[in-house]
Amino acid sequence: MRDYYHIKINLPGGIASPGYLKDILSAAWNANVRKVRFGSRQQLLMTAHYEDMRFLERDFKKLGIFYEVNTDRRPNIVSSYCGEEVFRTGQWLNASEYHSVLDSFDFEPGLKVNISDSNQSFTPFFTGNLNFISSPEPHFWYLYVRLKQTNTVFKWDGLIYTNEIGRLSKVVEECMLEEGLNEENALKAAVAERIRYVFQSSQQELELPSFSLPYYEGFNRYESRTWLGLYRRDEEFTIEFLLDVCALCLKTRVGEICSTPWKSLVIKGIEDQYREAWSNILGKHNINVRHAANELAWQTEDHNGDGAELKNELIRYFSKNDTRTFGLCFGIQTRPKSEVFGSVLIRKRPLLRIGQLPLFSVYDLYYTENFNPNSRAQVLFERGLFKIHLPAQLERLCRRFNNQRSRDTLKTMLSEPDEAKAAVKTAKTVHQCPDCLTIYDPEYGDMLGDIPPGTAFEDLPASYCCPTCDSGKAVFVAVELTRSSNLEPA
């Protein structure tokens, strides 16, 4: 018999009314649950002792609350509603549009569904099986389908009308789960036979926005009101604190509490006259709302203490070494079939197994194409790292990102009109380390590596490493050294 059970309650779109959340938390408190968490799909999570489960289940059934125990057969619907209004995107999306989409679901999806504003980077685009992303056309959405247990994503034909999203999702799910269709053309044909829905042709392709995770904690102004972001380092919120939050929301006419994929909360619509009351609650429960920005950009698996512990170790290393991580987000994956969102992915795997028992775990480091976490293409950076070596290699990857961004910015700043480009003459091609920017110039060779002058880069041994940071020869990139032709004699 299990000593403890994991309970999951969906909050569709990451939205909960204070009254509904209060009922759930009160039932949990009566079953001796003292802390809860919010998952990476914006769901509510808690752990209860087996002796208290019957009381919890009894109260949930009385309240009509759908829940799952030790399973996730009905994944929560993820949405970017938590950032609506507070992180301005200039899109046509508003609160009523999100609610129209969520209201169109008259069933509990068995597939993962994501509802995303195409101009934001606060919530993930493609971590669902059915990924609806707003198009430039008001009230119409792109649909990108990711087949079960694959990393393959394909675009659905046409743009889907807002009020049709729930109906279409239900039919697509029936075809995928009940009929077992797992091929693009067969799935589209089966859906076309079953349903007619409102759509229009797509005039342009989806453009992924550049990633920049906004600072989502503390008191922040928007329009004439304030929103409050709440993050906990251990990813746990005490029920006593959340009950006080619900009570103050009800008292001050705040109608919604939003959960985020970063396992945090956002409370919108705080009026100025109640700002002090909110500060008092934070003080009463000793809630810190000013963590370092590099601590907020991590996603770990649900119900996983190992991932959270590793996250905190790496954050301490970054803080000690004053490592710049702006523009990056990190995902830690310790289970083979789980999914996390990040531009840098840390994957744990066993080096050896005895039966089902893993021994001597190692870590693989990946980064996404252009370091955009919404990209599905992943690039291997280092493989088979022991835990002791992981922080330094992760810092090296951060340096590579910063150097790449600096080069891209410099290229943009130094872009010249055609007349000026004609006055630039290529001097020679050299190779540069992307991590520390050290240049290998065949004219000079490498004295530290016993490489004589005149040795072409192609003739260097495969074991050649950067003399500054030890990066391998394979990662060096060719660059052109140029000089202005008006500095040379005619």
Relevant terms:
about 500 residues, alpha+beta, Sulfite Reductase Hemoprotein, domain 2, Sulfite Reductase Hemoprotein, domain 1, seven-stranded mixed β-sheet, 10 helices, about 25% strand, globular
Structure description:
The structure is a single chain. By secondary structure, the protein is of the alpha+beta class. Helix 1 packs antiparallel against helix 6 (about 240-250), helix 4 (about 165-180) packs across helix 5 and helix 6 packs antiparallel against helix 7 (about 275-285). The strands form 5 sheets. Strands 6, 7, 8, 9, 10, 11 and 12 form a 7-stranded mixed β-sheet that branches. Strands 5-1-4-3-15 form a 5-stranded antiparallel β-sheet. The chain has a 5-stranded antiparallel β-sheet with strand order 2-16-17-14-13. It has 10 helices and 25 strands. Strand 6, helix 3 and strand 7 form a beta-alpha-beta unit. The longest helix is centred in the C-terminal third of the chain and has 24 residues, at about 390-415. It starts with a strand and ends in a 6-residue tail after the last strand. It has 4 domains: about 90-200; about 220-295, Alpha-Beta Complex (Sulfite Reductase Hemoprotein, domain 2); about 295-405, Sulfite Reductase Hemoprotein, domain 1, CATH 3.30.413; about 415-485, Rubrerythrin, domain 2, CATH 2.20.28. The protein has helices spanning about 20-30, 55-65, 95-105, 165-180, 185-195, 240-250, 275-285, 305-320, 390-415, 420; strands at about 5-10, 15, 35-40, 45-50, 70, 80, 115, 130-135, 140-145, 155, 160, 200, 220, 225-230, 235-240, 255-260, 265-270, 300, 330-335, 345-355, 355-370, 380-385, 425-430, 440, 475-485. About 25% of the residues lie in helices and about 25% in strands. The protein is globular and about 80 Å long.
